[in-house]
Amino acid sequence: MKNYYCVLTFHTTHYALNTEKVLKERNVPVKLMPVPRQVSSSCGIAAEFPCEEKEKILLLCKEYHIEFDDVHQIEKDSKNNWFTKLISMNK
Amino acid sequence: MKDDKVKIVASGGLIGVLAALLVKFGNPVNMGICVACFFRDIAGGLGLHRAAVVQYLRPEIPGFILGSFGMAKAKGEFKSRGGSSPLLRFILGFFLMVGALVFLGCPLRMILRLANGDLNALVGLFGYVAGIWIGIQFLKQGFTLGKSTKQAAVSGYTMPFVAIALLILLLTAPAFIFFSESGPGSMAAPVVLALGAGLAVGAVLQRTRLCTAGGIRDIMLIKDFHYLWGLIGIFIFALLGNLIFNFETFKIGFEGQPIAHNDHLWNFLGMALAGIAAVLLGGCPLRQSILAGEGDTDATVTIFGLMAGAAFAHNFGLAASPQGVGLNGKVAVVIGLVIVLSIGYGVLKATAEIKAKGGVGANV
Which chain regions cross the lipid bilayer (chain B) (predicted)? Predict the structure, then answer.
């Protein structure tokens, strides 16, 4: 089983809802969730998706004028936070 | 994931237990923690309204703010930010307070009242959920107060500074600060205990981000139950806390509940108003206090709106009392609903126009 996933974060809830709509129409697996705590202290909504769909999703966001804040890769086991940190450092 | 659930239930549980303890040590019954009531008491203590029974500089509030501030600083999450429709936030905060004071409590006190058997709070909860549902419809249509941007660091320190000023005024008690001699404002846990409880809640909620409005919103909007577990934690632990520490006050029913009335329609509408405003703001009063502590100047403006709302609510006789809701309060709730909905529609209209002009928005 994969032990990481990716999330898109947004400046507004509306874009999160739009993203879900657009991606679902194209059968890209996506799920809305509260923004993971590791990413931010805000309490907004993020879109979870498999990391391998990243390029496709970023293209779709551009095409549909969806403004997003950032893309993050999240380690599922929160005890291994160093991994997430490593990735964000290499960005 | 399981770890997350334990954390969120525990943070709710902490609020529940501390609320019960604060009542045990002197706070008014079912008001161990009530963010709306406490800001109202602070507005009274500062003399912004002259309702003699609800004036006290509640140290729990500076506790929430400084607890959040300290935790955010320690974790490197303190960020000055703002500029997301501050005026509209002020107005939404204003009417959120009016709705809460007609119901007699913020959404957190609603849960605490429910946990002590006050069934009027159940009517309030239905209203709150209805309000959140209405707010969500605006979100779905594209409502947004706009994204916040980085601000000069100094502006983020506003609320922590206000919190410290309030504590100094509380401890030095100069002649121009009002302290109730009777009524709810005169009932208070010792300062050290109240401040300590506030600091603990502030620090923990900065980590777990629990919010009454966010919890219910996420269930309806994205079918996510994470924060709901926190709300359940508040309820269960407040219930247990009350049964252990305040058993003599526990009473199931509608009649004769402390600092409550059983005017069902206005309990419902008051909380519906609070619910819509809280969703459009992106957080209940408790959450706004936490955000203000971590440098969110939009939340700070919202809090000033809450305090202005509290001052007007008592100056104009809008706030309810255990005898019920007066005519002024009813008119204010109706006006509040009209204004809050107008803000919703107004923002939607503006967003639609921007999209049309920019040729963007084929996606909506």
Answer: 87-112, 118-136, 157-179, 185-205, 226-245, 265-286, 298-319, 331-348
Q: Which CATH number is A58's domain given?
A: 3.30.70
> A32 CB near a chain B CB, below 8 Å?
yes
Report CB contact under 8 Å: A14, B142: yes
Identity of residue B100: A
Q: Does A24 touch chain B (CB under 8 A)?
A: no
Half-sphere exposure of B211 (CA within 13 A, CB side): 27
How close is the nearest chain A Cα to the Cα of B44, in Å? 31
Joined tokens for residue B298: 């939009």
| B77, B361, B364 ranked by CB distance to A41: nearest | B77
Residue in A closest to B147 by C-alpha: A11
- Which helix (H) or strand (E) element contains residue A1? none
What is the interface pTM, i.e. ipTM, of the complex? 0.81
Look at chain B and count its residues.
Answer: 364
Q: Does A29 touch chain B (CB under 8 A)?
A: no
The per-residue pLDDT for A77 is 60
Which residue ranges in chain B fall short of pLDDT 70? 1, 357-364
Residues facing residue B118 across a β-bridge: B253
| Ramachandran angles phi, psi of A70, nearest 5° | -165, 165
Cβ–Cβ contact B41 with A under 8 A: no
Counted domains in chain A: 1
Q: What is the pLDDT of residue A13?
A: 85
pLDDT of the residue at B4: 85
Burial of B359 (0-12, 13-18, 19+ CB in 10 A): exposed
B300 lies within 8 A of chain A by CB:
no
Query: What is the pLDDT averaged over residues A24-45?
Result: 88
Structure-token pair, residue B307: 């305090």
Phi-psi region of B136 (alpha: psi -120 to 50; beta: other; left: phi over 0): alpha
Taking Cα atoms as reference points, which of B180, B324, B320 lies closest to residue B255? B324
Closest listed residue to residue B281, CA positions, set B309, B310, B303, B307: B303
Give pLDDT, residue B91: 98
The alpha carbon of residue A90 is apart from the nearest alpha carbon of chain B, in Å, by 20
CB B95 within 8 A of CB B273: yes
Q: CA–CA distance from B282 to each of A90, B136, B145, B272, B303 (Å)?
A: 32, 10, 9, 15, 13
